[in-house]
DNA sequence: ATGTAC
């Protein structure tokens, strides 16, 4: 893949047929995916062929190989110009995302209560493949209420406070969810998983604010140096996975009829303005709301433990997805256009002044939450004005080695011992799952966020370090 | 990510 270095942190893949736009990779030279080991830059070029794509096919500094689209990819299509929506541009874990809670505790309080907190969280946070959930839904009607209402429905039912919703993307629920487009099989898989972490890179972590880079922004977010925080990373579990599977299958046989040809079967798509496009977006919104309710219920589970063990409160800083497509208006060449912005392993980062931000955050910009790999730092960033890539930035460290490679390279027991020796308490779901998340299977998250800032995508606000991890 | 292949 030929890359042209436009400036530090910015590499172009020149347009050549059948690409409709160039590719644009935001990364330091050191973070660029290794050719041969990872085909994600070919995927960036493939995405550039999609009907209606505008600007460029973008890759964030944590880009790596994914299903059809790269993880760490952003693509916007023009709805009025035959623009498509593609389930592969969202990912299997629809509205997977991160929520950050701020405790009224200081890290100096932690040594004496940390083990009690971790022992309280361990049984209170359902996790692992399949297995258990905080909430048992009565019937399909109640699941439909979750699919329509997301965190708003959870709060209505007493799982949270109204203030939480002001600190959620979309006020806690995406509009236009269409539960009728969610199959019975997806419903069956989702019925018993609302309020569960899942597995893989999902976690609930007790952290401390280790360094503040931007005091006014941190203060507006409700964060101060030394404060204890809780980060929750999870998604839409089996329900979101089934929605993706179902709608890829439904789109495949309709593509020729829409006159769409793509270089990779995994780029299955349909015009936003088509029956298949609308069906997917309705189901995707429903799965997104499921993921938001999931994070809201896990928040309540953590709150109960912090209250019982430490008499402490947890206030929501923000909840943001990094796997989602949204219909948004952006200026393209000075003209406002309705775009379907796919962010897959990429985080929306609204700039200061944006109308969709709550009043108290509007002067600063949207909080962007970046989880690191297990045992390493996480970051809080904020959006900046005039950024490229339709107000998007990175989402995490980004894998460099597969799950299988990682699982063979280290034993979970050894990894846990190393983490505990470095002051990180570990409550895992399985030894194998722990091993697959070894930090050396990931890029350096600090280098990723520095590249994202260097590329003009966002600004650093604070660094968080782990004290204890409840691992999916 | 995922009842890690219907």
UniProtKB/TrEMBL annotation:
Subunit structure: Monomer.
Reactions the enzyme catalyzes: a 3'-end 2',3'-cyclophospho-ribonucleotide-RNA + a 5'-end dephospho-ribonucleoside-RNA + GTP + H2O = a ribonucleotidyl-ribonucleotide-RNA + GMP + diphosphate + H(+); a 3'-end 3'-phospho-ribonucleotide-RNA + a 5'-end dephospho-ribonucleoside-RNA + GTP = a ribonucleotidyl-ribonucleotide-RNA + GMP + diphosphate
GO terms of molecular function: GTP binding; metal ion binding; RNA ligase (ATP) activity; RNA ligase (GTP) activity
Binding of Mn(2+) 1, residues: 93, 202
Record keywords, A-Z: GTP-binding, Ligase, Manganese, Metal-binding, Nucleotide-binding, RNA repair
Transmembrane segments: none
Necessary cofactors: Mn(2+)
Any single GO BP term: RNA processing
Catalytic residues (positions): 395 (gmp-histidine intermediate)
EC number: 6.5.1.-
Major enzyme class: ligase
Binding residues annotated for GMP, in chain numbering: 201-205, 322-323, 371-374, 378, 395-398, 471
Cofactor: binding details: Binds 2 manganese ions per subunit.
Protein name as annotated: tRNA-splicing ligase RtcB
Pfam short name (any one): RtcB
UniProt: Mn(2+) 2 binding residues: 233, 322
Family: Belongs to the RtcB family.
């Amino acid at each position: 893949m030929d890359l042209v270095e436009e400036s530090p942190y910015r590499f172009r893949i020149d347009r050549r047929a059948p690409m409709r736009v160039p590719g644009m990779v935001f990364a330091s030279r050191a973070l660029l995916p290794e050719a041969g080991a990872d085909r994600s830059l070919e995927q960036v070029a493939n995405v550039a062929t999609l009907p209606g794509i505008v600007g460029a096919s973008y890759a964030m500094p944590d880009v790596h190989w994914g299903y059809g689209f790269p993880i760490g990819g952003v693509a916007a299509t023009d709805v009025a110009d035959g623009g498509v929506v593609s389930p592969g541009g969202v990912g299997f874990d629809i509205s997977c995302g991160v929520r950050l809670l701020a405790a009224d505790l200081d890290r100096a309080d932690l040594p004496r209560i940390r083990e009690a907190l971790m022992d309280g969280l361990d049984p209170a946070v359902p996790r692992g493949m399949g297995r258990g959930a905080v909430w048992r839904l009565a019937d399909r009607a109640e699941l439909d209420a979750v699919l329509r209402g997301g965190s708003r429905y959870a709060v209505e039912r007493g799982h949270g406070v109204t203030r939480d919703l002001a600190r959620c993307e979309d006020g806690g629920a995406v509009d236009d969810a269409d539960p009728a487009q969610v199959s019975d099989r997806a419903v069956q898989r989702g019925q018993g998983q609302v309020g569960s972490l899942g597995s893989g890179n999902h976690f609930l972590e007790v952290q401390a604010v280790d360094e503040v880079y931007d005091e006014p922004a941190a203060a507006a977010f409700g964060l101060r140096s030394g404060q204890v925080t809780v980060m929750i990373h999870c998604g839409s579990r089996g329900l979101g996975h089934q929605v993706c599977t179902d709608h890829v299958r439904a789109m495949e046989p309709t593509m020729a009829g829409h006159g769409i040809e793509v270089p990779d079967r995994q780029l299955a798509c349909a015009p936003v303005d088509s029956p298949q496009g609308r069906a997917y977006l309705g189901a995707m919104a429903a799965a997104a709301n499921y993921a938001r309710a999931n994070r809201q219920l896990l928040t309540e589970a953590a709150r109960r433990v912090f209250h019982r063990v430490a008499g402490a409160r947890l206030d929501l800083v923000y909840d943001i997805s990094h796997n989602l497509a949204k219909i948004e208006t952006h200026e393209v060449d000075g003209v406002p256009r309705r775009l379907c912005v796919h962010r897959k392993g990429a985080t929306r980062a609204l700039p200061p002044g944006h109308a969709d931000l709550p009043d108290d955050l509007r002067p600063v910009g949207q909080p962007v939450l970046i989880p690191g790999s297990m045992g390493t730092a996480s970051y809080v960033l904020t959006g900046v004005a005039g950024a490229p890539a339709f107000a998007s930035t990175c989402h995490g460290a980004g894998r460099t080695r597969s799950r299988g490679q990682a699982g063979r390279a280290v034993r979970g027991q050894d990894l846990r011992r190393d983490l505990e020796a470095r002051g990180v308490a570990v409550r895992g779901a399985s030894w194998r799952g722990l091993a697959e998340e070894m930090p050396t299977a990931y890029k350096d998250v600090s280098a990723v966020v520095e590249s994202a800032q260097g590329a003009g995508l966002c600004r650093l606000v604070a660094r968080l370090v782990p004290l204890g991890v409840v691992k999916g």
